[in-house]
Amino acid sequence: MSLNLQSANSLCLLRLSAIGDVCHAVAMVQAIQRQYPQLKITWVIGKIEYQLLKHLPGVEFVIFDKSQGWRSYFNLKKALAGRKFDLLLHMQVALRATIASLAISAKQRIGFDRARAKEGQWLVTNRSVEPLSKPHVLEGFMGFAKAIGVEELAPRWNIPVPQQDTEFARDMIPDGGNTLVICAAASKAERNWLPERYAAVADHATEQGYRVILCGGPSDLERQLAKAIQSIAKHDVENQVGNTTLTQLLAVLKQASIVLAPDTGPAHMAVTQATPVIGLYAHSNPGRTGPYTCLDLVVSVYDEAIASQVTGDITWGTRAKGAHLMEMIAVESVIERFNLLSQRLSR
Question: In which domain, by residue range, is 306 found?
Answer without folding.
Answer: 163-346
